[in-house]
Amino acid sequence: YATGYNWTLLARPAGGATLTGAATVSPTFTATAEGTYTLRLIATNGILQSAPATLTVVVKPSLSPAPSALR
Which of 11, 46, 52, 59 is at 20 to 30 A from 38, Cα to Cα? Predict the structure, then answer.
């Protein structure tokens, strides 16, 4: 089981985003602009670390529910 986490915001549109709690199991990602965001997670158990897992998030204000309503 994982005991450590390292989330990284790899790519984002101009205007950016915030990623808080990047060393926790459930960080907070806040998109501040429409576009495509790419995040990476590497987990560790203190001895070994996982292969990187990549997550792509697409933010479009026209989607329902609004991206600001998602958490």
Answer: 46
